[in-house]
Amino acid sequence: MTSMYARLLTILVLSASLILFANPVHAQTPTKFSTKGAISESSNFHGVILWTIIDNNKGTMILQSPVGRGLVHVSIAPSTTCDSSTPICLFSTVIDSTDSNVFKTGDTARISINLDSKQESLSMLTGVLAGFDASVDLSNTWIPHSVTDSTKHYQIGLNESIGVTAKS
């Protein structure tokens, strides 16, 4: 039972992270970026590591817990339901997920991100985890130098022994 909740939390965090980066209300917000962080001790599923990769209106979230790894693809749309002091506010919808029986196609979440304070908040709106909230302490954030250059291609790899790797 514990491993199922850990996987669900991982997917939830990934879904929420993707939502944040597509909010056109904040013109200074990058539309291509990635983050990595651990879920805060005060949140459900604390200690789970979440990688969020946003590319305009789509995203990928990778969750790593002691019981395994999950992957969630989401679509991203701007949201206005976050606190007005939150720079990035997104609404995400699960497109598909692997290694998880928790996140289903169509599940939704709200994500708020503040890259300056290195905080990410996820609120599950529908699905098995509806009503769950999680805070992520971001340890790393990456923004490509030229986020408007559509000719750049990035390769993201997932390796069991190393983790997530990226190169341009």
Automatic annotation (TrEMBL):
This is Uncharacterized protein. It comes from Nitrosotalea sinensis. The lineage of its organism: Archaea, Nitrososphaerota, Nitrososphaeria, Nitrosotaleales, Nitrosotaleaceae.
